[in-house]
What does this fold into?
Amino acid sequence: MNQHNSSFARSLPPRAVAIGRTIQPPPLGRPATIYDAAYPGLSYDPDAGVFQRNGKVINTVANNGYVVVWDGQAMRKAHRLAWRFYYGVWPANCIDHRNGDRSDNRIENLREATVAQNNRNKSPTPNRALPKGVSAYTKGKGFFARICVNRKNIHLGTFVTVEAAAAAYREAALRHHRDFARVS
It folds into this structure.
């Protein structure tokens, strides 16, 4: 069985062995295209993050920003199907997009995550005046920062400036959420 030739792939878990799966060797430096016998005519390119049927890209972006693919049986979220094609098993948990881009389904951008980890990696709310984790006290008495860890809100302090409160949240997010921390 050929392994995907990239430095990132060596850090990923090995592909699961499944009957009927074949991996085409990468021509001229292109990534391997993965086929699965359970999905005839459908292939996945892990470096581009796209699905093809008979050589034609079939990715469709839904209203919520996720890419969906008709697999011959049902519409499926492409990131979950990509995981199935690459590792040979359906993900047990959520699939998180490392860079926050729901349409980027390259295998190096996908990782399995719990619901809590996936929520930590959410982008800040659009059109929000304050950074993620920062709120203003009423009547203009400053700002406070807080973070949620294991379903508990932790008060990080009261601050005179937004920047100081955002810095406190950033430090706490990196400490508590590690790889899943997303700060504004």
Notes: The mean pLDDT is 74. The helical segments are 78-87, 115-120, 162-177.
